[in-house]
């Protein structure tokens, strides 16, 4: 049985988690081109080696980050996103014309 440590809920069976994709820095949505934004949303590096990924503990809906070796499938560590994010980004909607 494969186990993963949730930073909030502790050691759990891997079946309790949902993979959320590769973590990558978000470009500034107010200054990036449509091509840069589409690349951020739809493409991934698919690197063989250690990468950082989004995971969710499904029962608690808690999202966190994990470092995982994609070659060996070893989970190196899991951690709260607060380690990477220091401020909240508010997306302001433009008023309808």
Layout of helices and strands:
Blueprint: E1 3-6, E2 10-13, E3 17-22, H1 34-42, E4 50-57, E5 62-69, E6 75-79
Antiparallel strand pairs: 1-2, 3-4, 4-5, 5-6
Protein architecture, described:
It is a single chain. The strands form two sheets. A four-stranded antiparallel β-sheet has the order 3-4-5-6, with no helix packed on it. It has a two-stranded antiparallel ribbon with strand order 1-2. A hairpin with a 5-residue loop joins strand 5 (about 60-70) and strand 6. The longest helix has 9 residues, at about 35-40. Helix content is about 10%, strand content about 35%. The model has no long low-confidence stretch (mean pLDDT about 90). The chain is mainly beta. The N and C termini lie far apart (about 55 Å).
How many DSSP H or I helices? Answer: 1
| Global outline | globular
Strand content: 35-45%
Largest sheet properties: 4 strands, antiparallel
Secondary structure class reads mainly beta
The averaged pLDDT comes out at 91
Order of strands in the sheet with most strands = 3-4-5-6
Q: Spell out the helices and strands N to C.
A: EEEHEEE
- The radius of gyration computed from the alpha-carbon positions, rounded to a whole number of angstroms, is 16 Å
Give the number of DSSP strands: 6
Straight-line distance between termini:
56 Å
Uncertain segments: none
Residues in helices, as a percent range: under 10%
């Amino acid at each position: 049985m494969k186990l993963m440590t949730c930073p909030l809920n502790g050691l759990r069976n891997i079946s309790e988690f949902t993979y959320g994709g590769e973590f990558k820095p978000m470009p500034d949505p107010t200054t990036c081109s449509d091509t840069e934004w589409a690349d951020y949303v739809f493409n991934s590096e698919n690197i063989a080696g250690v990468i950082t990924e989004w995971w969710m503990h499904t029962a608690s809906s808690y999202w966190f980050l994990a470092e995982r070796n994609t070659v060996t499938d070893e989970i190196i560590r899991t951690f709260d996103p607060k380690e990477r994010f220091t401020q909240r980004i508010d997306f302001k909607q433009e008023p309808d014309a």
